[in-house]
Specification:
The relative contact order is 0.16. The protein has one domain: 3-Layer(aba) Sandwich (Rossmann fold), CATH 3.40.50. The strands form 3 sheets. It has a 6-stranded mixed beta sheet with strand order 7-6-5-8-9-10, sandwiched between helices. A two-stranded antiparallel ribbon has the order 1-4. The chain contains 7 helices and 10 strands. Helices cover about 40% and strands about 20% of the residues.
Length: about 210
């Protein structure tokens, strides 16, 4: 997947789905200060990149999760990507809300599924893994057999790796932070002096 990781990283940079700004840090919703901001919803606005991501996901699922009988997306960022993957694979699609719907059936999982079905989960971005693993818990509690999760991009935090390992969930990503930074340095997206900042941030992002 190294070649794929480089191609996806390059595409995300080109369409500004990933922005790097070591000199003027972004502030994340949780309060972290960061030299990187990732918005993979922008992928959906670029047909060529959208197809590239869809096809890479489909190839990954065929290779590692061929027993999957249903594709699940994590709301809201991965719903559209999950639908595209499910369509490419000819599989049913469901999605997991961040919280139960406050009216009607009060569903947490939307779509048709049955206990015992094997499911692969599609996510757009992995930071610490908290919300992604909450979706996995919901699927497991509904009786589904979660084979693993596939995401477009991960910051590759140690905390995320530990969280996924503790939950017993396999994680595969189309691209990752180390690949991105190496590519950005090589192709001149950032100044050489900024590379150290980008590398240091990932070691302790909460206190950067």
């Amino acid at each position: 997947m190294d070649r794929t990781a480089q191609k996806i990283a390059e595409a995300l940079l080109q369409i500004n789905a990933i922005k790097l700004s070591p000199a003027n840090l972004f502030t994340w919703a949780g309060g972290w200060r960061s030299p990187i901001y990732c918005d993979n919803r922008r992928v959906l606005s670029h047909p060529e990149v959208r197809a590239q991501v869809r096809d890479a996901f489909a190839e990954l699922v065929r290779a590692k999760y061929s027993e999957a009988g249903v594709v699940a997306g994590v709301a809201t960022g991965a719903i559209a990507h999950g639908v595209l993957v499910a369509e490419a694979l000819g599989l049913p699609f469901i999605y997991v809300r961040s919280a139960p719907k406050g009216h009607g059936l009060e569903n947490l999982i939307e779509g048709e599924y049955a206990p015992g079905q094997r499911v692969v989960v599609i996510e757009d971005l992995i930071s610490t893994g908290g919300s992604s693993l909450a979706a996995v818990r919901a699927l497991r509690e509904a009786g589904l057999n979660v084979l693993g999760m596939a995401a477009i991009f991960t910051y590759a935090f140690d905390e995320a790796a530990a969280n996924f390992a503790a939950a017993g969930v396999g994680l595969d990503t189309l691209s990752d932070y180390p690949t991105l930074i190496a590519l950005a340095e090589r192709q001149g997206y950032v100044k050489p002096a900024d590379v150290d900042t980008l590398k240091r941030w990932r070691t302790d992002p909460a206190n950067f």
